Amino acid sequence: MAASAGQKCPMVILAGNSHPELAQLIASRLGVRLGDMTVYHKSNRETNVEIKESVRGKDVYIIQTGTKDVNNDVMELLIISYACKTSCASTIVGVVPYIPYSKQSKMRKRGSVVCKLMATMFGKAGLTHIITMDLHQKEIQGFFDIPVENLRASPFLIDYIEQSIPDYRNAIIVARNPNSVKRATSYAERLHLGIAVIHGDDKVTETDSEDGRNSPPLQRQAHHKMEFGLEILPVLLPKEKPPLNVVGDVGGRIAIIVDDMIDDVKSYVNIAEVLKDRGAYKVYVMATHGLLSSDAPRLLDDSCIDEVVVTNTVPHEIQKMQCHKIRTVDISVMLVEAIRRIHNNESMSYLFRNIETHD
Q1: Taking the CA atoms of the chain, what radius of gyration do you get in angstroms?
Q2: What's the start-to-end Cα distance of the chain, in Å?
Q3: pLDDT digits (tens, 9 = 90+) for 114-133
Q4: pTM score, two decimals?
Q5: How far is the C-alpha of 264 from the C-alpha of 127, rounded, in Å?
Q6: In sequence order, what are the residues at sequence separation of 6 or more whose Cβ sits closer than 8 angstroms to the Cβ of residue 48?
Q7: Beta pairing partners, 309
Q8: What is the distance between the alpha carbons of residues 261 and 65, in angstroms, rounded to a whole number?
């Protein structure tokens, strides 16, 4: 039976298999135990969930983040949520520090906006609220039909810079591309530092397949134009980006590259080499989500990057064993405070003090 008016529903913390260390940290800080639940895969790789305690009329918080095993993470979250919904839980809050597929939030060629699909499935599965951190695009909040608390990791990363980087006053914040300038500016203004911007591209242009994507309109004779209603379209030349270059003076400075996530590290390695060539004597990379897929740890270990700082929104213990340059910042206290405030029906504005949309 649901709690009566003015009486709080009991809290239940459930955790999928994506990040057990973070789930245990959150539960211990909240002073509660993790709910008794088993999530396992059958021999045919189907996901099976068994909740071994009652969640009827309770506020359920499901801790599940995106990892390299992304599809299993998504299915676990959906099935756990639906199991709670069909067991008459009062509210079901998904604590998803890194939302899977959040990089696929724009239409590209003949693809699809997969993050919108994720948002729809989360709502249909029974989630009534989402707690996440540093969405890849702030507009992703609009994909959801349920409330989304998009927390920020910037206070923790700024604190790390101030406490753990000697002579950080001699640093300069670097935007890895022009699209990241607003984020870099936000960090720089809080730290009273200057900024530099990386301009140019080191990607190889993809080859165009013969699928009609670039086929020009049929060229007709002048007297046939009006007959077919076809006007000659202006030709738009492709962009030709220059090689990687640094806009700003990084000579004799500590260069700190800030971003929301770091996954494929090749571009960061190339940027670090350019920064060192321009006179930066140390290069740090700071990001909220350290996915570090594939051979990223090896590439980082062999690179001229001095340190990579990420938070524990995504598990990366194996990557840390492969690369001694990776440092972890604990953000569990922010998630705990968000859970506590939602559970007690308190305002969330305290967690967004002095936070701007670009942070």
Answers
A1: 24
A2: 42
A3: 999 999 999 999 999 999 99
A4: 0.88
A5: 31
A6: 39, 40, 41, 42
A7: 286, 327
A8: 14
